Amino acid sequence: MSNNGPASSAADFAITADQLGNVVNFDERANTEQTKLLNAKYGGVDGLAYFLRTHLETGLEVTDPTTMDAVDAIPRQEAFGVNLVPPPPSQTILEMIIENIKEDPIIKILILGAIVTLIIGGIQGDGWVEGIAILSAVAIVLTVTAGNDYSKDKKFKRLLLLQSDKKTKVIRGGRKDQISSWDVMVGDLVELVIGDEIPADGVLVRGNRLVVDESPLTGESIPVKKSAKSPFLFSGCQASEGTGIMLVTAVGARSSGGKIQALLSEAQGQETVLQSKLRGMALSIGKMGFMAGITTFWFSQFASSSIPVAHYPQGGFPSSDLIRLLRFFNTSVTIVVVCVPEGLPLAVTISLAFSMFKMIKDRCFVRHLEASETMGEATAICTDKTGTLTENRMTVVKTLIARKLIHGEGSGEPDSIPLSASLFSDAIRDVLMEAVCINSTCFIKYKPNDPLPLFVGSATEGALLVMAQKLGYDYDKVRKQTRKVENGEYLFTSDRKRMATLCEPRAALIPGASPPLFRLYVKGASEIILGLCQQQVNSDGMVVPLGGEDREHLFGVIRNWAGDGLRTLALAYRDFDRPLTRAERDDPEHDLVFLGLVGIKDPAGIIVRMVTGDNLLTACKIARECSILNDYGIAMEGPVFRELSIPEKKAVIPKLQVLARSSPADKHTLVSLLKEMGEVVAVTGDGTNDAPALKEADVGFAMGISGTQISMNASDIILLDDNFVSIVQSIKWGRNVLNAVRKFLQFQLSVNVVAICTTIIGAIANDESPLTPVQLLWVNLIMDTFGALALASDVPDPKLLKQKPHRRHDPILTRPMTVYVFTCALYQVVILMTILFHAEQLLYPSFNAAARGISGRRWTMTILFTTFVLMQVVNKVLARQLNFELNFLRGTTKNPLFPLMIFCILFIQTLIVQFAGDFVRTVPLTGNEWGLCIAFALGMIPYQTVIRSCVYFYRLQKTTFSQQTGGKTAANGKSLPEQQPLKQSTILKSSSVARSPADLGE
């Protein structure tokens, strides 16, 4: 905001901020004497305007009529303050460290362990070093944790400031414009309309039946009428009826809403659902770790005691036994410390905060922390906006070509495989590619730094062209090589539901044979194309009759795919060995040969429903244009929907795609029922009447430009540019949060399993843990802070939009993650146990402890410790890919934090081993010994590659088996069920109210 304006100072105003506060006083709002005070002492609203040096028609004076900023800002802000309530002050890092010591039981346990170690050192005379080391490590952990918390707190304070900024309409210099609510000053004229939030305290200048909802401040739901007798307006309240112009008298912390906001001490939102789940998981794992620690303590103590406790002499324990007992206690403490995965909630917080600030760049402003997390689970969207959720990006995920069924990537089937040229014979593939490339007007573009295609034209045709690219064809080259017949294009219309192109083909089904003179390629609505076909291409490339049984089977496949939310498209052709007659040119689309079906999926995997106040015909037309309403959906009017009982509503909702002439109550009811049915629901809206549904939804989207303030306040995410496509970005970031947490979880659990097994086995076998408390603290730091920063800050993979939404009650720990954790742990435990028991004899026979003047046992423990840490570095790389993906390096370069964290771990580990000595109980290693540790760590890569390859070939084998059945079986090898004939979309008007599910096409 510019500070240029009329020269004046704070002393120029004939009224003070305190005097204004006494007049417009929220606590005295019901006192009729306040209006008398305003009129008698200050000359009413006109007098206030005079004292504040403003005009009740033109507002504040401006020195430059081209801008709203050229006002006397500095003196006004010096005299009356700024319209900004700063967040509560942050704790210092020292205060956070003290709070962590008080609240974190793990830190208390570690400090107790350090004291025990110091006692052992006092008895032995040389063991004090490890006690000091533990305390130093605790100090480092506390400092790093507090630094993380401090950074996170700063980010959320910044977010709070962004949330407080709202667009406000003001009058300055006789001109009306929108400015930031932060720039509103005392003396400003603010215009209020229905749905606006009042940005500051003030008095009504003039109004038209202005009614204000003061419940945000009073808690009372009865709206208050404003007039000359009751002119006082308070910040934070909302205009629920009418319009008005107000004169601002108090801003920021001096306003009524600002005073309440200043009392709030909690800067951050409540714990999210995912944080709660992970905190519960961490607690359960911690309890198991506690039990493991106790079990290890008692087992080790009794297994190693040669004399029963009752037989000790009256002098008490021998010092050696006391030391052994204290060491067992210390080992148990380290097991508990390692077991508790306190980094899990931290990973969620980092990922959520990271995604929230990145989403602002994508024009999505997240008002509530949990919204970006929940959006990743969204399965249904109710909108009154036109558009699509796919950014015109769709994907072919299933094909049934020449009677061969293939489940492609993104189909959601367990036997899905990438589409490739080897799946089809050369002749069938050539004809298929001509059908796809020639009978199309779409083309593909790519944006910089975006690997996903942008379709210019029909999204459905674009999906087919991408399929052609996957099969190794250049659609542009195919088009140039194949000549279209003049006036031989039959364009798609909503009545025909198909498109055809006549061309001179180059492809023939029979290898070596000449293609026909002309070929008509046809594609369109599956059931319509199927009705025009008399023959079909079989798996051998032969044209055979299309019988009744085959036709019914194909109808069944179409019905199944549609039930899975896929758009089905049929491909067919007709050959001509002579020029077409006039009659054939007028109507060539019959006696077709059926080539196959494709199932096309919206990448976001979300069902979109249009809920609008428009009439049914208009709504259906728009919904069809936007691909919301398909041939299997139901379009219904609000009065029809209202007449149905709850069971009838639930029966029709799965097919309901358009709800026209609907009321806000209808929208609210639909959202409530969808949530009852287990859906995660997102709602978009811009009007005040959308607020109930926005509030009821799991995630509410408000429009940042056209939306009212009430709708924004009721929402979770604001689309700053009103672009419906921005929802795709929020879906992507929401799914990324869960993926990031899952990556971190499988990494941390695998580290936990290895550390616990190694510690317990080593403690029982050798009377002490192979990993010391200081070393385990370093491992804990690798797992929690470094792990969270490296894995929870990944940017979204474009492939996320091809996955199914995560269901509300789905487990966080999936089967592939569990397999990864235990296969990864198995390799590490075997290697570490081999080092523990056979390091000198088998692995490094040339080692001579005496010659190097070091302890052989400490050398073994150093090799074990170094190998363990290096394996976690490799583990961190492998854990970045979920679901057994072979390319584990994909995406590593997109996250600059990841290589930085890896470098930090390797650098610190080198310092610890080579220079820490007694402090960490290590000895320096030679280059060959480092090479041995590195080799053990890198061995995880071929080991995991073999496991992932086995999984890949197992899935491929299942797919091959299903293909060998001739395409007449489902992916699981079972016969597809018989299906009823297809029905067209059902349109229900209020003139024919449906009374039962049977009336709705069930």
Automatic annotation (TrEMBL):
Ranges of residues in domain Cation-transporting P-type ATPase N-terminal: 42-116
Record keywords: ATP-binding, Magnesium, Membrane, Metal-binding, Nucleotide-binding, Translocase, Transmembrane, Transmembrane helix
Alphabetized Gene3D superfamilies for the sequence: Calcium-transporting ATPase, cytoplasmic domain N, Calcium-transporting ATPase, cytoplasmic transduction domain A, Calcium-transporting ATPase, transmembrane domain, HAD superfamily/HAD-like
Gene Ontology terms describing biological process: intracellular calcium ion homeostasis
Membrane topology per record: Multi-pass membrane protein
PROSITE patterns: ATPASE_E1_E2
Subcellular location field: Endomembrane system
One term under GO cellular component: plasma membrane
DNA repair in keyword set: no
Cation-transporting P-type ATPase C-terminal domain: residues covered: 769-945
P-type ATPase A domain segment(s): 165-264
A GO molecular function held by the record: metal ion binding
Domain of life where this protein originates: Eukaryota
Major location (coarse): membrane
Record field: transmembrane: 106-125, 131-150, 289-312, 332-357, 744-765, 777-796, 817-839, 859-878, 898-917, 929-954
NCBIfam families membership: ATPase_P-type (TIGR01494)
Name used for this protein in its record: Calcium-transporting ATPase
